[in-house]
């Protein structure tokens, strides 16, 4: 990067001031005197620069200097480009200072703009102040997640962003030794890039989901390489290019000895061959298993036994690969809170061009989280992964609801034999009590409260079981999964060969959950102000004045908290105190009426319209 002369002299002055503050010159003089005294001895050989740098490193002066340096990515106001038009960044991206550890290896991934996003070729230029659609790029690499600033959609979007990815992580059990080229060649984790389009109304759409193999940089002589990444569309458009991103990769610190390009390409082709062979063997096994399943009863042909599902890139993957053990850290504190979290992600079927029924598309977890909405299968696999993380014996069930609509939900099996269904779209839980068809007609039978009609198969990250009972009606099914006469299981080893993450499978690495990007209290206050304004305006149109009682408003917050707690835990509490406080606040001769409405969005206008209905 070239700097103007005045900036260069300013930078030199900053460096000089920092070194003076550390008294670096005094330390260097002391080391120089000591080195001359100790190491040269009577021979008087010339003191080389390398000898002197070694002496500085031995005494820890270089380390002290590196520890005090902080690298931050801040844009100076006069250099920052003006946005092409107005857009609203609701989840403000904060630039954080990063302390770089000189003993670790980093990959600096720079996105230097996009081109050939032909869908936006004819888009008219937005007027000043007009809200327009935006692109946001999300990245995941080895349990690190990043998000770019939103930029206006265009044929050549101004996506310029830098991401510092730690290649070698102690948390991955790789020790504290600096990773060399050979060690990094064996790291097969790709950089998962997800591009999301947000329209002016705040609705999100998945534009592309791309896996970037970054290891070509290991063969570049100066530790830098530039490439044009072609992003393909998703779903029915997975073979159609969506656009191109110009990407520059850089290794910090650079490698002392690089690999030859042949070594890198050989390693990549070996991994591809190993993956293809494992997938071929699994397909042979799955066909044989399916033939055996049909031999039990010919009617099994009509059961919903789903072994493979297409992801957003049109790749057929075993359904077990969509479920993994996912720990949420301190973000979610209990299984019921996890169910509440998943139920708040909106439901949206995969978009399809033209008619012809439902188009099924299962999403990778990162694409689902970044888009912030998905189909029932995405909700069920995420909830199952979280419940497995909480130590429960959880499975995804594939079957139908009323009117034979295909559906997926979650089931947990207790140690005492109890079976609980979890509806991932609502967070509701149902206890399963099977009906015995051989009971006498007058014997009392439990009435099922759940909406499920049939179940064809259940699966999690390491087991797949197909229902081979005479009837697949849920209320008649017995969920004793260890009984081979009721459930036909697949080999666990066969499933793990293609579903376990690593170089042997095409399963994307699991991204971690991130904490909220905005402050809930601030968002709550903002929403309340918007609602007050809408109510006041509506009453004004009817010729009425509006007075707000702040004390009563504060008392209602206790009720809202109790409703939220009941949704998260299933336990109701604090109602007596709220009733007592309201009775004291309402004057004699007046009546208090309140009705709770539950929303899964933060749009004040939509909430007001629903309340008016």
Automatic annotation (TrEMBL):
Boundaries of every Centrosomal protein of 76 kDa C-terminal domain copy: 520-611
Domain CEP76 N-terminal, residue spans: 10-69
UniProt record, GO biological process: regulation of centriole replication
Domain CEP76/DRC7 peptidase-like: 360-490
Superkingdom to which the source organism belongs: Eukaryota
Protein name according to UniProt: Centrosomal protein of 76 kDa
Subcellular location: Cytoplasm, Cytoskeleton, Microtubule organizing center, Centrosome, Centriole
Principal localisation: cytoplasm
InterPro entries per the UniProt record, alphabetical: CEP76, CEP76-C2, CEP76_C, CEP76_N, CEPT76/DRC7_peptidase-like_dom, Papain-like_cys_pep_sf
GO cellular component: centriole
Similarity annotation: Belongs to the CEP76 family.
Biological role stated in the UniProt entry: Centrosomal protein involved in regulation of centriole duplication. Required to limit centriole duplication to once per cell cycle by preventing centriole reduplication.
Species per Swiss-Prot/TrEMBL record: Paramormyrops kingsleyae
Location of the CEP76 C2 domain: 99-255
Keywords: Cytoplasm, Cytoskeleton
